[in-house]
Design goal:
The protein has a five-stranded mixed sheet with strand order 2-4-5-7-6. A two-stranded antiparallel sheet has the order 1-3. Helix content is 62%, strand content 13%. Helix 1 packs antiparallel against helix 2, helix 4 packs across helix 5 and helix 5 runs antiparallel to helix 6. The chain contains six helices and seven strands, in the order αααβαββαββαββ.
């Protein structure tokens, strides 16, 4: 574990301990205040009782008034103290959860910066190295094609990363106006799969389409959704495994589905993976590349198209991502 991560955890533990100690001190002060007020009220009641004379004809009524006044003050102290205690507890819990949430967001943003730095530097470095190799050496035509193909793949990857970042920012800021054109989802999926077959000729991509499944939507956004889910399947499944991509009909809906044979996603993580910057595992130990924006964008794009996206376990291993689009009326 990196040294800075250990240092941050120590600081977090110290800050948390200091917070709870301060809260305990406030609660202890509140309890002490309540006990002191009760004792003071009791002493005042005793002093008033001592001032009464047993020979006074109104002794009993005056005594009752003193006792009732003491009970009323005790009830007042209990009521005020309970409300004060409830406000303190609610405020403390809310503040603690807000701080924890902010810390998690900050950690996710730091992980994102680490990931995006690596994601941007790697394709640039590979493309630069390939081009320098072509400039410095006279290679055979076949080798030149392989090097150019590698440089093109890294350039496409860099383009996908920048698109994800820009579109994510535009969708969140409301700067992107989602189009509602009639789109042949089957043709769009086929085009995306063919592009991936060209980029990753060694991977097995099976395509099963119901032709001419029309939906309303934004073609560039839907292409990002399809590409992100296919790339996600390629990234997290073995090289020799088969990835199945399909477009089918279910009642009045058009369903886009991707099945992989990867490691799968635990049930507790199935909803979390759609959160912004969220990634399985730890940034310092995971090996799969990514920024934590891909599935977040998929969820956002699906929602903007009135579609539902969900995850299921594949059989016997792997994950199924499915996006169900409403019928194009």
């Amino acid at each position: 574990m990196p040294e800075f991560t250990i240092l941050k955890r120590k600081r977090f533990v110290i800050a948390t301990a200091a917070y709870w100690l301060l809260l305990l001190y406030i609660l202890a002060a509140l309890i002490f205040w309540f006990i002191e007020l009760q004792q003071q009220s009791h002493q005042m009641s005793l002093l008033k009782q001592q001032e009464l004379s047993l020979s006074d004809p109104g002794y009993q009524s005056k005594l009752n008034i003193i006792l009732q006044d003491q009970e009323r003050k005790n009830a007042q102290y209990i009521g005020e103290g309970s409300i004060f205690l409830l406000v303190i507890v609610i405020g403390a819990v809310y503040l603690y959860r807000a701080v924890i949430r902010q810390i998690r967001i900050q950690q996710q943003q730091q992980n994102f910066m680490m990931a995006i730095t690596h994601e941007l530097k790697t394709p640039i470095a590979v493309a630069k190295l390939n081009l320098e190799t072509l400039l410095r050496h006279k290679l055979e035509l076949e080798k030149q094609k392989k090097i150019l193909q590698s440089a093109l793949e890294e350039t496409n990857r860099l383009n996908d990363i920048t698109n994800n970042i820009l579109v994510s920012a535009q969708l969140e800021g409301g700067a992107y106006v989602v189009a509602h054109d009639e789109i042949d989802l089957s043709s769009l999926v086929q085009k995306c799969v063919n592009d991936f077959k060209d980029r990753f000729p060694e991977r097995k991509l099976e395509l099963n389409l119901v032709p001419e499944r029309m939906i309303w939507g934004d073609s560039p956004l839907l292409q990002i959704l399809i590409n992100n889910l296919i790339e996600n399947a390629i990234k997290y499944s073995p090289r020799e495994s088969t990835i199945n991509v399909s477009v089918s009909r279910a009642n009045d809906q058009t369903v886009f589905t991707i099945r992989d044979q990867g490691m799968g996603i635990p049930d507790k993580q199935k909803k979390k993976v759609f959160k912004k910057f969220y990634r399985l595992g730890n940034e310092s130990t995971r090996t799969a590349r990514g920024t934590g924006l891909g599935l977040y964008l998929c969820k956002k794009i699906a929602t903007d198209h009135r579609a539902s996206i969900f995850i299921k376990d594949n059989s016997p291993i792997g994950t199924i991502f499915a996006v169900a689009f409403p019928k194009a009326d």
